Amino acid sequence: MKNIGKIVHYTKFKVFVAESKRMVPLNTSIYDDRKRKIGVVTDVIGPINKPYLVIKPLVNKPEKYVGKEIYVLRVK
After folding, report:
1. Which class would CATH give 2-72?
2. Of the residues 22, 44, 56, 62, which has the fewest C-beta atoms closer than 10 A?
3. What is the pTM of this model?
4. Which distant-in-sequence residues (6+ apart) come within 8 Å of 29 by Cβ?
5. What radius of gyration, in Å, describes the C-alpha atoms of the chain?
6. Is residue 52 within 8 Å of 58, Cβ to Cβ?
7. Dihedral sign, Cα of residue 67, residue 72, residue 75, residue 76
8. Measured on CA atoms in the order 47, 29, 5, 56, is the torsion positive or negative?
């Protein structure tokens, strides 16, 4: 697993916004530190050198993930 950033916000539109250390392709699965799939990347926003990921949550109580580190299994 590779750490790619941290979830910084859960929006009123029911998506996560995460700071990312690198560009990640759309539809990439996102995992927590226990290798549980918590979401899927639906959009990348912001500057290329410091992108933000928009992630559709796939978990119950997504607001508890704000501030948590996020991971991918493989970086393409």
Report:
1. mainly beta
2. 22
3. 0.92
4. 37, 39, 40, 72, 73
5. 11
6. no
7. negative
8. positive
- Whole-angstrom Cα distance, residue 60 to residue 4? 22
Tell me what the mean pLDDT of segment 39-63 comes to: 96
Q: How much is the pLDDT for 74?
A: 74
Q: What is the average pLDDT across 54-58?
A: 98
Report the pLDDT value the prediction gives residue 76, as an integer from 0 to 100.
56
Residue carrying structure tokens 């109580």: 61
How big is the chain, counted in residues? 76
pLDDT tier for residue 27 given thresholds of 50, 70 and 90: very high
H or E stretch at 37: strand 37-45
